[in-house]
Each structure stands twice: as C-alpha cells, then as structure tokens.
Specification:
single chain, two-stranded antiparallel sheet, mainly alpha, 335 residues
Length: 335
Amino acid sequence: MLTFILRRLLLAIPTLLLISAAIFLLVDLAPGSPLSEIPLTIPPETRQKMIEAMGADQPVLVRYVLWLKQFFWVEPAYMLDGWFGTNLADGAQRIISYQTRGPVFALIGERIPQTLTVIGTAYLVGVLIALPIGIYSAYRQYSWFDQAGTFVAMLGYSVPTFFTGVLFIVIFSSWLQWFPSIYNTSLKVVDWTTFWAQVRQMVLPVMVLGLANASELSRYTRASMLENLSQDYVRTARAKGLRERPVVLKHVLRNSLIPVVTVIALGVPSIFGGAIITENVFKVNGIGSALIGAIHANDLPMIQTLTFIFAMLIVLFNLIADVLYGLLDPRIRYD
C-alpha cells in the first residue's frame, strides 16, 4: 500500500505541472494580460519596476517558472507590490489580488470557514441521507418506499439549485418566515442564542445542497446495491443460513460501496470549491462567491490560484478513493 501511495504521489507531480502550465497559458493568452491590469495612473518608472517584478517582460517559459516559484516559494522581499507582489510587513512573497490589493491566500483563508461550515455540512447531510435511502430502496425494490425515493431523487437531481434555492426562500422565508433568506457571515457563535441563530441561517442552503447531493448519491447507491444483490455469493451466503442483516450490511454493502466511494471522494473537492450558485443565492461569503467576484473583476491571480487549488484537491482525493478501494475490497492488492 505504501509503495502504491508513493508511486501515485510521484505520478501526481508531472500531472500537476501539466495542469499548472495549462492554467498559466490560458491566463497568459487571455485578453486581460498582466500588463493591461496595471493601472495607468501609476508613474512610468514604478510601472516598469512592477513589470520587471512580474517577469512580464520575459519569455513565456521564464514567466511560467516565475509563477511557480512565486506560488510555492517564500523568499525575502525585494520587489514592489505587483501582480504577484510581496507583503512587506513580514518579508514573505505573496500572490496579490487585483481586486482587493491583498494576498490571495489571505482572502481564501477568510472565505474557507464559511464554505466548510455551510457546504461541508450540506455534503455530509447529503451522504448520511443518501446511503440509507439507497440501501433500503434496493433491498425493497419496487416497494412504495423505492417509488417515493426514486421520485424525490429524480426531482432533486433534475431541478437546478438556483430554482430550489429561490423556491425555499419564498416558502420558508417569505411565507412561513421560519428561516432567514440571507446568510449573515458576521455572526459569531458565543452562546446558545447565537448558536441557534447560526443553525437557523444554515438550514435553507444546507437543505438545497443536501437535496441535490442526496439525490445523486442515493441513485448510485441503489444501482450498486441492486447489482450486488443478484450475485452468486449473496445466494450462497443465504443458502449457508446467514441472517439477512449480515448478508446485506456486511457482504453486499461492502462491495456496493466501492463505486459509491469514488463519487463521494471526487465530490469532496467541491466543498472547498464552494457551491457557486447556492452561495450567491443565499449570500454566503464563501469560495464560490469569491470566484464569481474574481471573474467579474477580471482578478486573474485569484482565478489562477483557486483553479490550481481545485486541481490539486481533485488529484489528492482521487488517490484517497483508490486507497479506500483496497480497504473495502480485499481482492485488491497494491503491492
């Protein structure tokens, strides 16, 4: 297992290098170049220093290496604030946002707690709801529970989140006035009153995203369970006199979770990416809304950084899914 993990990590290095090159070239060839983003009000001598600091006067290959160096490497500050700029307070090199004129990673660090709180909770709720529904729907195929679960899953999977978000706001916020329609990012949990206020404002976005996630995962779980319930090893286990619960939960479920784990693991990076539409509907100040704001403002460093972070997370959770295969299926050997 350790050899497999090390081999995959080594393989991830050229993969991420290719992805970073694609991201850099797409931004470099886009209409909004680093030179055009420098304000015209800056004096010519300062403008030239900023261009040299960015490496924008160098060939493409040199600029790409400089971008990687400034993305990963920390050095003493010797350049003026620019596209990738520096934080002169601590002498550490930082990627600077066009929009906020501050370090990109500082803004991401401010947004991640909001995203993990709302989007992470919604994803966890979706998984906890989807697995038992998918398992029981497959075990009681064509029952009223299966029919109802199929209808709700198809409804939640086919209706876009921006529609369900607005619908939930109209019903639960405007008509019933049970929950707030706007997420208050400045709320600090200090006692039970603020805790319940936090829970109330999380209900609507968690319901919207949880319904969408549960709809997709429950169908995958049901299909995988149905495929394994008809296998010979299940009939053999029942013929040997095993009780129904161990047959379903120990043998069938373990094999059925292998493809489901892939869907769950590959969906985890979307938590860090944020639900762009839902965050904007409920005004959640998370990563998704930051990405939308960066696109509108042509904030190329922010777009570059977020895109590359998402790529690294996808590669990482692909590896985690492969490792979980070996834990779920004893037939899989990596060494």
